[in-house]
Amino acid sequence: MKAAYDIVAVGGGPAGLAAAISARDAGCGSILVIERDRELGGILNQCIHNGFGLITFDEELTGPEYAARFEEQALSGGIDFMLDTMVIDVSADKLVTVVSRAEGLVQIQAKAVVLAMGCRERPRGALNIPGFRPAGIYSAGTAQRLVNIEGFMPGREVVILGSGDIGLIMARRMTLEGAHVACVAELMPYSGGLKRNIVQCLDDFGIPLLLSHTVVRIEGQKRVEAVVIAEVDGRGKPIPGTEVTYPCDTLLLSVGLIPENELSLSAGVELSPVTRGPVVNEILETNIPGIFAAGNVLHVHDLVDYVSQEAAVAGRNAAAFVAGNLDDEVGEIPLVATDGIRYTVPQSIDPSRMADELVVRFRVGNVYENRYISVYFDDERVKHLKRSILAPGEMEQVKLKKAELAAKPGLKTITFKLEEA
Amino acid sequence: MEQIHLTCIRCPRGCQLEVAVEDGAVVSVAGNACKRGETYAKTEAVNPVRVVTSSVPVTGNPAHHMVSVKTKGDVPKAKVRAVVDALKGLTVESPVAIGDVVLADAAGTGVDIIATRNV
Q1: Handedness of CA A275, A281, A284, A286 (dihedral sign)
Q2: Most C-beta atoms within 10 A of its C-beta, which of A201, A281, A303, A332?
Q3: Complex ipTM value
């Protein structure tokens, strides 16, 4: 294993694999993917349900099948791998420090780095639920790993807090494995998950979804014995008198995902307070030249297909960076998200370096009906796209063309906003 | 005439559909905001189907306890639980490759269960 590479991808999940493949296909001959697990594929390995790949492959694959297609491409040559290896530091000058049982501490000098570490689940500690610390409280993803990979059932009588997609998927999975899921409680007045999952994972099995409800107490000292669920008001505060006790032995938490950016911070990468991922430009490069980011480490996605697309862009640009093929910068134009749109990725565009067509991805902050997604070049509205429904749980995207920006020299700001019909 | 209530899954709006079915055929769909809701209702009301996924124990590979599996195609929604029950007690031996049949004709559906992972 040589100690210098043109490109190092941190993470061997869907983002790291797609970035490495596209960098190789763009002509880069020195690529290393570092994965902390003993195998490639990342979280897809435990996502055994189907629905992956509709956009990429025009068929509904399971997570492991989707991962296998990318692994096959990645393993076909030109890419090195370090498995069972944890990256513990990435420096601003792209020195990557890793540790593994087999090799010990190793430092690898990269010319470009693609951050592809994915995200992690918000834990109980982030929620301020009073009560003891009994066994039986799991993040939905931990339960998913236990059931699907390890072959253990974490419990028999289950309550789920949070209606994120993993929680919905696990409601179905545990029901089919013989558990009883009493309910899914969601603090917000709308679900954070995809509609498809609410129908096929909850409605199909008669599992109630309690919107505007939360867990206010966990009972049991050694093992969860019950959780108390109350309705919340418009500000998310529990309404006294609405408490209902659900006897159970297991509480699953599906209360949000957070991009995993400890390494980004150690490299000096600037993070967005909204996405909690790096701030990136049109080539998905962070504020540190040669450090790129893609996938759930950049912003949390709903669909892996878009992770793969995004990471392919980062990988291609990392290859161009290493080869010295990037066009000169003429200046970044900031993208401003306002009036219901929470953020955009990327956060800025240099029109000289952008691809002929650039996908801008974003999320809205609430459920909106009959709105227009509007894009303004300074004061001029250039896009006005009707949407009958917009929801925070579903990522949106708008394509901008290089020619559109080229026609507007001196452009100062690109604004994304929602407008009423 | 039978009235079936469905939630459309074609977009986040989740239209509440009222579907009238007579002699196994959809005669009317109401509550849909767009054409896609009608298309969804026409199959979901008469012949709801699902792909079932699960995982089963695997032996002979110390790195893996389980191998993920799925029905090779759609099965009737009413048969989902029977298909999962048919997997109980099944153990497969490594090596197993994506697409290998681990259980033929699951629960009399005529649909095979295949591996979705190389283990």
Answers
A1: negative
A2: A201
A3: 0.90
Question: Tokens at residue A117, please?
Answer: 């570490």
Residue of B nearest to A197 (CA): B9
A172, A205 Cβ separation under 8 angstroms: yes
Whether residue A144 lies within 8 A of chain B, CB to CB, comes out as no
Token duo for residue B31:
């509550």
Domains of chain A, start order = 1-121+257-326 (3.50.50.60), 123-255 (3.50.50.60), 329-421 (no CATH)
| Nearest alpha carbon to residue A340 among A378, A387, A379 | A387
Pairing of strands A104-115, A226-231: unpaired
Taken in order of first residue, the domains within chain B and their CATH numbers are 2-47 (no CATH), 50-115 (3.10.530.10)
Contact at CB, B55 and A151, closer than 8 angstroms:
yes
What pTM does this model have?
Answer: 0.94
pLDDT of residue A176: 95
The 10s digit of each residue's pLDDT in A197-230 is 999 999 999 999 999 999 999 999 999 999 999 9
Q: Nearest CA of chain A to the CA of B67: how many Å? A: 8
List pLDDT tens digits, range A87-104.
999 999 999 999 999 999
